[in-house]
Specification:
2 copies of one chain form a homodimer. Chain A has 356 residues and is α+β, with helices and mostly antiparallel strands. Helix content of chain A is 31%, strand content 29%.
Amino acid sequence: MRLVDIDDLEAITLGATLLGTGGGGDPFIARLMTHQAIEDNGPIRVVAPDELDDDDLVVTVAVIGAPTVIIEKVPSGPEFVAAVEALSSYLGQEIKAIMPVEVGGMNTLIPLTVASELGLPCVDADGMRRAFPQIEMTTFTLAGLSASPMCLADEKGNKIAFEATSNQVGERLVRGSAMMLGLANAIALYAMTVRQLKEAAIVGSMEYAIKVGDLLLAVQRNEPGSWEAFYKFTEGRTLFEGKVIDLDRRTTTGFARGTVVIEAFDETSRTMRIEIQNELLLGIEDGRTVITPPDLICLLDHETAEPITTETLAYGQRVRVLGLPCASEWHRDGFLDVVGPRAFGYDVDYVNFGGN
Amino acid sequence: MRLVDIDDLEAITLGATLLGTGGGGDPFIARLMTHQAIEDNGPIRVVAPDELDDDDLVVTVAVIGAPTVIIEKVPSGPEFVAAVEALSSYLGQEIKAIMPVEVGGMNTLIPLTVASELGLPCVDADGMRRAFPQIEMTTFTLAGLSASPMCLADEKGNKIAFEATSNQVGERLVRGSAMMLGLANAIALYAMTVRQLKEAAIVGSMEYAIKVGDLLLAVQRNEPGSWEAFYKFTEGRTLFEGKVIDLDRRTTTGFARGTVVIEAFDETSRTMRIEIQNELLLGIEDGRTVITPPDLICLLDHETAEPITTETLAYGQRVRVLGLPCASEWHRDGFLDVVGPRAFGYDVDYVNFGGN
């Protein structure tokens, strides 16, 4: 067990923002919620799956919506507890632990807050170890687990429980209702036993986020060898460095979509185009696809090494494009159907970035 | 108690079609379902509220969607039972009787079918005694009852349970999900005790539909004095007779909307315009509003006296426009907020058609 205290929040938040790959909502908002929860209830217990009973029921909890909306309509808190309690009541079963569905973006910190408020531990595991725009895009789906029943709640007291015939159908239904409720709601989903979790989840993703956050903090402090340490641990590399010369963003059908074009500092004829669907998804350098989902594209401010979210992207920004390989748990049969480029509607082949 | 047998279906269906005021789905499709249910399970028990215990739980069940879609995507049946069972399970309570939410359109016959399949009685009462396009437009809402929890089900096995902060919000949420599920789904809602039902429902609406159907059958058979008998019982009158000269229909945001213009047989300078939102809602004669919701506008074929639904409306049709006063139960404090013309977005005053 690890106790997450207020001192840990800086690294977790930074790691979560990086793994948000430009999306996943602004973790700095969630950080305020977590900070308050720790002040109210003390340090938060983060446990390994082995510390729980195999039959214990675990659920994931998240904010769902478009980051562009979430940043303006800050989740207020009680709707997350309401969503978890609605799911527990719907199942008629007691929930023993909370888990993030994605360690990446604000959905890294929200489960910590909810765990604290419910007096439950948070499991050090998730279904993405990054952010993805759709709720079915998890290693849970890959392992054949159902996201349903899913409980959606808003800050006004509206609650909706879904039982969908597939996680893909469930995503469409939940997204539709979230649009009706204002596009920034709480959802509890993927109820599973610890036994199922051990098979299906990416274990250790919370620790991974903290470690990545610590390493990036060292980079930001310009510590010697910090970039090398970061690259070594993440097995990532810098893909491109340049200036934002074109930016197109729009919020449609419940998603923040867009395209950003970056021009190299040194050679103005070299450009990288990144396609956005809540997250940075596809990296195309001079017409050649160089990185695809589920591998990670992260944008950093070139001077401060601060991660840039798609909402804060701006024309003229000087940026570094990082590529990180996805969690090895993704490399299982059928993963491209769940999170490969074609799952996002991009007609390109997967580029095996990490060499897995 | 009345036993509804196959012989009763002609009058019920005709009465339901008339009270559908052009909408409410095509009852002839529902009639096939009810016919099958009676063949399978015998005559259907229709009971007065007094025949049940005051504490018995009653729920309404309906098809939700746009009539233009429902006519092409015939409800298959099991989803209605699934919706009721999901609601029972959600409440953790046994349901003792089924009730129509609207006696008008196919939602008159579907509750009979569901009652038959579940081996339950159907209560002779409803919340509209006509069809309305939105689920909150009931005397139940007027009496302060909540439509939630509401359970939506489709023919594929998807199920959604809603707890909305108001019946108006609930309508929007359900409509949104119904659009996602293909716009012709089953919904169970307005769970209430018989005690509440007695206060809030329009009692006797099923008998009313049968009686109206019988009277219209007599008209169709050209029996002497049949129109007089029809007018006497319904307190209605013919508002206009003429030919359809303009027709505009579109399915948008989950509703079939449109406008029909009828030109008088005798004087071509006289026209009546009727505004449609699933149902025929507003009658305007030569620029003067002559009938408004909740009173009923019914279109009949001028020769056969067969009710015309908005889907079967056609250019050149020769029609009779009937006006019928709504059930007297509507004339309670606040009814215009729930079903007056402004509740449909029409900026006109209520015309007290029935003189209540």
